[in-house]
Design goal:
- The chain has 858 residues and is mainly beta.
- The chain is built from 13 helices and 46 strands.
- The strands form ten sheets. The protein has a 22-stranded antiparallel beta barrel.
């Protein structure tokens, strides 16, 4: 890890910024021999002289003039009643909600002028609520859910639609943009959550401006840059009761008039809580180290240059799951390897024998050039921006696939490498009214190109206990496709239950190096041209049409192959037999897709405080091929398309002390891509069609009681399949059973979600005292595509609280908090496990967590 490197760089930059600032301080001018004040008496000013002359002329005047002057003097000293009472003069100024500026449409705009359902979380809010990742951030955004129990496979859902990236070639449904750079892999969602200016969450298809794979929405992340003048620094240290420590800091300033710099670092060490009783270690322990450098340079010719470089290294124990709903046969078999095996998913305990680990290393470099072209080409103003970016990510992992104390199947040699290179050249401008109609227009248009290369070289291999498993009830069920169960043995259960400890060592030589390997490579080239025009018809009405033409080419090679010592004789290997795999090889697969993503918005402004909008948009998500396939059958899957209609209001009320934004929507998806469990792993297929309809609302209220403010978000959705005739059925209906899910709910689509966050702020002895509460509700939902009752997570409400004391003038604050005060035991997800039909893997949400944080700014 790079802890010393991070803080060493931060210290050096701080010294560089502190020196010029100190040299400019007037208190140090004596070092350079300059006098601060001119001690000679000052000459009378022209004004003083004029007043003296006028006085002399008055004395020389007539008595009548003197009497007139005296009368005027008396008139001038007549007391006037004050316009405010003493009580009114001490009354604090009325609080108002500041305007929020976002870049959701690739140009800076007031949130009220963006005809899109968008929620913006500011950096101060993120810091004050100790939000450490996008999973926590998503709880404050209506109809959004993020789960990242696997750093490389986050599950991001907006309005019930999203991506479960357990199959690594599955494209994301929710886009990620950071500082104008689009990231085409879902793995980047866990990389950059530090030193943020704000997070903008755009709901609904955003393909017109952001391109493919933004069919459900976009997370637009804006990091902090150099200050406009002077220098600044901040440091935040957070520690919780389980030993988790997070240190986040940044320092920035101007190195001269033209050059600005900011360096930010993060050290996030999580001890975790899920205890592996067999290995005596915590399975959710992680270490993350990240650094980001941002430079900006302004020239005299209205040219602005920017450079951003970021590096992130992560190491985690893997993976943090436990067996759930153990049946008697499975429990009996596994008791041979751990007599204390149990299936309680709420006790933060697990038992498996392989010490899995995952390492992630990523770096990103981006450069931008912006030029103010002034009035040009008949436009009132024209700007152009060029953004170049390159990013790489490498992942290695080794893990226990069966998640049990028996040594059955392991993931070995898993190496994933991803690289992307992109360029975007766009123009923004202000012009007159098209066709002479209206008051004016504003547009954004540009070109975009992306090349992404992905390769995964991995496999599964037999453990020394796989032979005994083959004779178990679960093993025979898988091998026979459900036709055969465990073999009875002398009244002592199944043969594997009685002989399991003996079969493993005896057969270890037979299954040694019994493997099934995958080698998948994919190159994606994407080209696009886009444009959007906002046409102000008058002071109240605006229309915004937009269009993006996207063309994509994919070249794919995919190989699946078994190997074992006995294959020359048996023609089949044990791993291959158990998982039902076939050898296959497909080289030179090609996919070509061309798509139009149109958009039309209408905005009506009643006044500066209330506006209504209606938006119609289409988006698409590209097709591809399964990276992890055991048979090579149905390797490819098609593109997905969506159409969305939204009606919304953005408003301020009561003297701008209450902001209220609400949107009603409907989204329809065709050829919906889903991840379906095949008995061992997950395949990507096209499900048919689905829809989501609902309402989302967020508000901020500065109440008449001066210390109290309240933030609220509420989401309601109903997301259902319209057609999905050949969907996977729960495993208790048979290994390869199918069902019709038409009219049924989607997974990860709770009907209700809401947060309520009141905050009280009082001055106490010259300091600022803060008390904050948070209530987060989530409705019941299924967490697997087949809607198995075992994967249903009940509705629940989580309460949290924090108290803080600080000084804004001195730049420090201390916070104490508790998340999940009532210690609700809730599952993030439950899904089918490999090798044990009818048994599930569960991942648990954190229980009650006490924490403390120290924030410093200077």
């Amino acid at each position: 890890m790079t802890t010393s490197r991070s803080w060493g760089a931060l210290l050096v930059l701080g010294l560089l910024l502190a020196w010029p600032a100190a040299a400019q301080d007037d208190e140090l001018d004596f070092l350079f021999g300059d006098s601060i004040e001119d001690e000679s008496p000052s000459e009378p000013s022209d004004t003083d002289a004029s007043e003296g002359a006028e006085g002399q002329n008055a004395d020389a005047g007539s008595d009548e003039s003197a009497e007139d002057a005296d009368a005027a003097s008396e008139l001038e000293t007549i007391p006037v009643a004050p316009t405010t009472t003493a009580r009114e003069s001490t009354r604090p100024a009325r609080r108002t909600i500041e305007e929020v500026v976002v870049t959701a449409q690739k140009t800076e705009q007031s949130l009220s002028d963006v005809p899109v359902s968008v929620t913006a979380l500011q950096g101060d809010f993120i810091q004050n609520h100790a939000v450490g990742d996008l999973t926590e951030a998503s709880t404050y955004v209506p109809n959004v859910r993020v789960e990242s129990t696997s750093p490389t496979s986050p599950q991001v859902f907006i309005r019930g639609f999203g991506t479960n990236t357990f199959n690594p070639s599955f494209e994301p449904s929710v886009g990620l943009v950071q500082d104008d750079v689009f990231f085409a892999r879902g793995s980047y969602f866990t990389e950059s959550m530090f030193d943020l200016a704000r997070i903008e969450v755009l709901r609904g298809p955003q393909g017109t401006l952001f391109g493919k794979n933004t069919i459900a929405g976009v997370f637009n992340i804006v990091t902090r840059g150099a200050p406009a003048s002077g220098s600044e620094a901040n440091l935040q240290y957070t520690r919780n009761a389980f030993g988790n420590e997070r240190v986040e800091g940044g320092v920035g300033g101007r190195l001269g008039d033209a050059l600005g710099v900011r360096l930010a670092v993060l050290e996030d060490h999580r001890e975790g809580r899920l205890y592996n009783t067999l290995l005596d270690r915590l399975e959710d322990e992680s270490r993350k180290s990240a650094q980001r450098l941002r430079l900006d340079y302004f020239t005299d010719s209205d040219l602005e240059l920017g450079l951003t470089a970021q590096r992130t290294e992560t190491r985690v124990n893997f993976w943090p799951r436990q067996l759930y709903q153990l049946d008697a046969d499975t429990a009996g078999y596994l008791a041979n390897f751990d007599p204390q095996i149990e299936g309680n998913p709420y006790d933060f305990q697990t038992s498996f024998d392989i010490p899995g680990v995952m390492n992630i290393d990523s770096w990103t470099v981006s450069g931008s050039a912006g030029k103010d072209l002034g009035p040009a080409l008949g436009l009132e103003a024209l700007d152009t921006t060029l953004v170049l970016a390159s990013s790489r990510m490498g992942i290695t992992q080794f893990q226990d696939l069966d998640t049990s104390p028996a040594d059955l199947i392991r993931l070995f040699g898993d190496a994933e490498n991803y690289a992307q290179h992109s360029v975007e050249w766009r123009f923004t401008g202000l012009g007159g009214a098209p066709f002479g109609w209206g008051q004016g227009s504003e547009f954004v248009a540009g070109l975009y190109a992306l090349q992404a290369d992905y390769r995964i070289d991995t496999g599964i291999e037999a453990g020394e206990d796989l032979a005994s498993y083959a004779a178990s009830d679960a093993g025979l069920t898988l091998i026979s496709g459900g036709a055969i169960s465990g073999i009875p043995f002398a009244g002592a259960g199944t043969a594997s239950g009685a002989l399991g400890p003996l079969l493993g060592p005896l057969a270890a030589g037979v299954v040694d190096r019994d493997r099934y390997t995958f080698d998948f490579t994919q190159r994606t080239r994407t080209y696009a041209v886009f444009g959007q025009l906002t046409w102000d018809l008058n002071a109240h009405w605006s229309i915004t049409p937009g269009l993006r033409l996207n063309h994509e080419r994919k070249n794919i090679d995919s190989i699946g192959r078994s190997s074992c010592r006995s294959k020359p004789v048996t023609q089949q290997c044990l791993v291959q037999l158990i998982v039902g795999a076939n050898d296959y090889q497909f080289n030179g697969l090609k996919r070509n897709e061309t798509n139009l993503s149109p958009k039309l918005s209408v905005l009506y402004r009643f006044d500066r405080d209330v506006s209504l909008f209606a938006t119609w948009a289409r988006g698409y998500k590209s097709g591809g091929a399964n990276a992890i396939s055991f048979t090579g059958e149905d390797l490819e899957y098609g593109a997905e398309t969506a159409t969305s209609v939204e009606l919304g209001i953005k408003s301020h009320w009561f003297g701008r002390t209450l902001s209220l934004n609400a949107t009603a929507y409907r989204m329809d998806f065709d050829d919906l891509q889903v991840l379906a469990f095949n008995g061992v792993f997950f395949d990507v297929t096209n499900a048919g069609s689905a829809y989501s309809t609902g309402v989302e609302l967020d508000s901020q209220w500065l109440t008449p009681y001066q210390p109290l403010s309240i933030n609220t978000s509420v989401g309601f959705l109903e997301a259902r399949y319209k057609t999905y005739a050949n969907a996977p059925a729960p495993v208790d209906q048979g290994l390869d059973a199918r069902q019709d899910l038409g009219g049924k709910t989607l997974a990860f689509a709770p009907r209700w979600s809401a947060t309520l966050s009141p905050t009280l702020e009082y001055p106490v002895g010259g300091l600022d005292f803060t008390l904050g509460l948070n209530a987060r509700h989530q409705g019941d939902q299924y967490t697997d595509t087949d809607l198995d009752p075992a994967t249903r997570v009940e509705a629940h409400t989580i309460y949290s609280a924090r108290i803080g004391l600080g000084s804004g003038a001195s730049g420090w604050a201390v916070n104490l908090g508790c998340k999940n005060i009532t210690d609700e035991r809730v599952l993030n997800q439950a899904l089918d496990t490999a090798l044990f039909p009818g048994v599930f893997l569960a991942n648990q949400q954190p229980g009650r967590t006490l924490y403390a944080s120290l924030n410093l700014q200077w």
